[in-house]
Amino acid sequence: FLELNPFTIVDNKIIPLDAVAILDDTAIFWMAKKWGSIDFPAAFGRELTPEEKYIKQLDEKSGASLKLTILNPKGKIWTMVAGGGASVIYADTIVDLGYGKELANYGEYSGNPTTDETYEYAKTILDLMTRERDSKDKILIIGGGIANFTDVAKTFEGIVKAIKEYKDKLKEHKVKIYVRRGGPNYQEGLKMMKELGEELGLPIEVYGPDVHMTRIVRIAVERGENNEKTSRL
After folding, report:
1. E strand or H helix at 155, and its extent?
2. Stretch 213-230: mean pLDDT, rounded?
């Protein structure tokens, strides 16, 4: 919008003394030629991390949706959630269970991203979560609702590729992975994840749409607490 404020009247003419204009970055696709080279500041003046910038660039080049916000790089709970609505529900559940301070990231992938796009997205998250060493076991929740048209198996191929690359670091950081998914080819995708855990010796628990979407959050945090208590003993 454009606001002219304040203004005065001189010789019966309105003279603006100041003005402010706000551009909506969601319109840049249509207005790029008129606006030219313009950089929009991050929300609330927050500077994006290199990883957030990278995912943003992927998102801008893709017909799918790829979003990532780092909340706490030292947090023990990381998420890789399919679907914007589902990502909110998972984050809210983690907070409702009292683990908001441990939530490391927020984001989502949706709109049927390619295997390569999902691989790049997953690799970025795995790299972030295996940087900070912690005495506590870490949790990765690969969740989502029941997809309408996203090929679950195709996206899981990208995630599987990333996990294979980071298998040693995931073991070093004692990462436990919990998967819940439904939608096109979900059986194939879940089978792929289960076999991956057996092949790599990684603790990967797999659940289908018969398990409530957020049930794996409670399962993950409760087992994480039990493991920490056992290790202290």
Report:
1. helix 152-165
2. 78
* DSSP 8-state assignment for residue 103: B
Which residues, in sequence order, are CB contacts of 207 under 8 Å at separation 6+?
178, 179, 180, 190, 215, 216
What domains, with CATH codes, occur in the chain?
Answer: 1-40 (no CATH), 47-232 (3.40.50.261)
The strand pairing partners of 13, in sequence order, are 10
Q: What is the pLDDT of residue 1?
A: 75
Are the C-beta atoms of residues 150 and 88 closer than 8 Å to each other? no
Is the confidence at residue 37, as pLDDT, over 80? no
Contact assessment for residue 129 and residue 165, using Cβ atoms and an 8 Å cutoff: no
pLDDT, residue 43, reads 64
Q: Helix axis angle, 84-96 relative to 215-232, nearest 10°? A: 40
